[in-house]
Design goal:
Belongs to the SLU7 family. The chain is built from 10 helices and 6 strands. With 378 residues, the chain is mainly alpha-helical.
Length: 378
C-alpha cells in the first residue's frame, strides 16, 4: 500500500535511514518528534507511525494523530425517549396509516394495540393518536443502561405498599405480645399462691435452719441473677396480703410481692407492723440516694463529667464535697448576718419596754426621699 510520504530513495538514502532508526532504538540518537512536539517511540512499527494516504493529513512527517479517536462529539448517556408520549390525533383515517388503530407512525404488523374486529380503515372511528418517535444517539454505556428512562416516582406505590404491610405486621405483633403478657401475669399469680401454700407446709426445723440463708440464682427463667425474697419473712408472722382481706383494700402485686399502701390505714400506728412499701421508699438512705441521683443528673446536664451508673464512687465523693461546701457557705452567711445585725436570741439583757409593747410616744415623719422631717413627742 502506498503512502503519502513514500518517494523514490536511493540505496544510500535507505541505508542511512536504517542506520538512523537503529541508532534511535539503541538510544544513541534523539527520538523523532511530531508536529505537536511530542516524542515518538522509536520502537513503534512503521505501519502505525506512517500516515495513510486516505487520511486528510498530507504531512510527510510521522505522527500518531491518525491513531486517535476522530469522533470528538460528546454523546449524552442520560437522554432517553418519552414513554407513551402522544402527538397529533387524526379525526379520519388517512392513507398509509395502520389499518387496525389508524395511527400514522406504524403499520398493522407492528401495531401493539389489541386487534379490532373491524379496523379503523373501515369504521373511520376511534382513531388512535400518533406516537412520538425520537432518534436518540446513545454511547456505549447509554445503550446498556437498564435504568435509563425510568421514572423514580413510580416506586412510590411500592413504598406505600411496603409501609402498609410493615404497620400491619407491627400491630399484629403488639397484640400477640400483649396477650402473652396477660397470660403470663395470670399464670404467675396462680403459681405464687401455690408456692406460698407449699412453703407454709415446710417443717419448722428447716425454716429455722434456712431463715438467715439468702441464695442467689444465676441462671433463672426470669433472665438474670435475682436474690430470693421468700425466706426473709418469719413464717409465724402473717403475710401482708392476708392482713386485710377486703377487696377494696391496698393492692398487692404478686409478681413483685409489693404492697405500696397501708392495708390497715385506720389502725393504731404502734400496733401496725405493715405501713406499705412506699414508707420504706421515702425513709432512711433511700432519700439520700434519690438526692445523689438527682444531683448527678443535674450536674451532667450542666456539662460536668459525672455519671451515677458509670462511676458511682466518684459521684458520691463529689456530692459529699458539694454538701460540705454548701454547709460551710451557709454557716458563713449566717455568721455574717449575725455579725452585722446581732443575735437577739443570744443576748441576755432585758428587752426594752418600748420593744416589748411595740409602741411609744415618739413620732417621726419622713418625706418621699426618706429624709426625716418632723420629730414630735406627745
Amino acid at each position: 500500500m502506498a503512502t503519502a510520504s513514500v518517494g523514490f530513495k536511493s540505496r544510500e538514502d535507505r541505508r542511512k535511514q536504517n542506520e538512523l532508526e537503529e541508532a534511535r532504538k539503541a538510544g544513541l540518537a534523539p527520538p523523532e518528534v511530531d508536529k505537536d512536539g511530542k516524542v515518538i517511540n522509536p520502537h513503534t512499527p512503521q505501519f502505525l507511525s506512517k500516515v495513510p494516504w486516505y487520511t486528510k493529513s498530507n504531512s510527510e512527517n510521522p505522527s500518531l494523530e491518525h491513531q486517535k479517536n476522530w469522533k470528538t462529539e460528546t454523546v449524552s448517556t442520560k437522554t432517553y425517549y418519552q414513554r407513551c408520549a402522544k402527538i397529533d390525533q387524526a379525526e379520519k383515517y388517512c392513507k398509509g396509516a395502520c389499518q387496525s388503530c389508524g395511527a400514522m407512525t406504524h403499520d398493522v404488523k407492528t401495531c401493539m394495540d389489541r386487534p379490532r374486529k373491524v379496523g379503523a380503515k373501515y369504521t373511520d372511528k376511534n382513531i388512535a393518536p400518533d406516537e412520538k418517535i425520537e432518534s436518540i444517539i446513545l454511547d456505549y454505556d447509554g445503550k446498556r443502561d437498564r435504568w435509563n428512562g425510568y421514572d423514580p416516582s413510580n416506586y412510590r406505590f411500592v413504598m406505600d405498599l411496603f409501609d402498609a404491610k410493615e404497620a400491619a405486621r407491627k400491630k399484629y405483633l403488639k397484640e400477640q405480645h400483649l396477650k402473652k403478657l396477660e397470660e403470663k401475669n395470670n399464670n404467675d399469680a396462680t403459681s405464687d399462691r401455690e408456692e406460698e401454700d407449699d412453703d407454709l407446709r415446710v417443717d419448722e426445723v428447716k425454716l429455722d435452719k434456712d431463715f438467715a440463708k439468702v441464695t442467689k440464682r444465676v441462671r433463672t427463667t426470669d433472665g438474670g441473677s435475682t436474690g430470693t425474697v421468700r425466706n426473709l419473712r418469719i413464717r409465724e408472722d402473717t403475710a401482708k396480703y392476708l392482713v386485710n382481706l377486703d377487696v377494696n383494700s391496698a393492692y398487692y402485686d404478686p409478681k413483685s410481692r409489693s404492697m405500696r399502701e397501708d392495708p390497715l390505714p385506720d389502725a393504731d400506728p404502734n400496733d401496725n407492723f405493715c405501713l406499705g412499701d412506699n414508707q420504706y421508699r421515702k425513709s432512711g438512705q433511700t432519700l439520700e440516694f434519690k438526692q445523689l441521683n438527682t444531683y448527678s443528673c443535674e450536674a451532667f446536664e450542666k456539662g460536668q463529667d459525672m455519671h451515677m451508673q458509670a462511676a458511682p464512687s466518684q459521684a458520691e465523693l463529689v456530692y459529699k464535697r458539694v454538701k460540705v461546701a454548701k454547709e460551710n457557705q451557709k454557716s458563713q452567711r449566717k455568721d455574717a448576718i449575725m455579725a452585722k445585725y446581732g443575735n437577739a436570741a443570744a443576748t441576755k439583757d432585758d428587752i426594752p419596754m418600748e420593744l416589748l409593747l411595740g409602741q411609744s410616744e415618739r413620732q417621726v415623719e419622713y418625706d418621699r426621699a426618706g429624709r426625716r422631717l418632723i420629730k414630735r413627742v406627745h
